[in-house]
Amino acid sequence: MLTILPPALIGAAAELMTYPVVQRVRGLDLPRKRFAIDSFRGRVWLTVPAALMWTGFRSEPISKQDSSVSMIFMAGGWLALVFCQGFWLRRRMAETFTPHALSVGELRDRAFAIAEKAGVKLSQIFVYSIARWRLANA
């Protein structure tokens, strides 16, 4: 944990220093505090499970009779990975990348016209809100 976590936290701190540039370039509509939380969580969600599993592998005894400590670390790493994937990452993706059906408007009409001209059946168009993050929206 002591060999993997500090570089990850330094990386998160460096990413936090890019906030003004990211805010300007991407048109970020996100407070600095939320950006910092996302940055640190984004680094920790994979670092902690990797550190636990690595500790388990490195503490594997030469004789296989007493491998309970290493197994606990490895199981803890897998559980931490599942927990982080299942809760934080899915919640983050759901709040950032939730599609919305486009039922009226010029964009919808144009897309249906192009699809008809190309001979493609189009039933629905979904768009992603880019209010918080300025990403490609296709």
Short summary of the structure?
The protein is mainly α and 138 residues long. Helices cover 65% and strands 6% of the residues.
Summarize the topology:
Blueprint: H1 5-17, H2 19-26, H3 32-58, H4 68-96, E1 99-102, H5 106-118, E2 125-128
Antiparallel strand pairs: 1-2
Helix pairs in contact: 1-3, 3-4
Explain the overall architecture.
By secondary structure, this protein is mainly alpha-helical. Helices cover 65% and strands 6% of the residues. It has five helices and two strands, in the order ααααβαβ. α1 (5-17) runs antiparallel to α3 and α3 (32-58) runs antiparallel to α4 (68-96).
DSSP, total strands = 2
* Number of continuous helical runs: 5
Distance, first to last CA: 40 Å
Summarize the biggest pleated sheet: 2 strands, antiparallel
Radius of gyration, Cα only, in angstroms? 22 Å
What is the molecular shape? elongated
Could you say which structural class the secondary elements and strand pairing correspond to?
mainly alpha
Overall pLDDT = 78
Helix content: 55-70%
**What is the domain total for the residues?**
2
How large is the share of residues in beta strands?
5-15%
Which residues sit in consecutive blocks of at least 5 with pLDDT less than 50? none
Strand order, sheet with most strands: 1-2
SSE succession: HHHHEHE
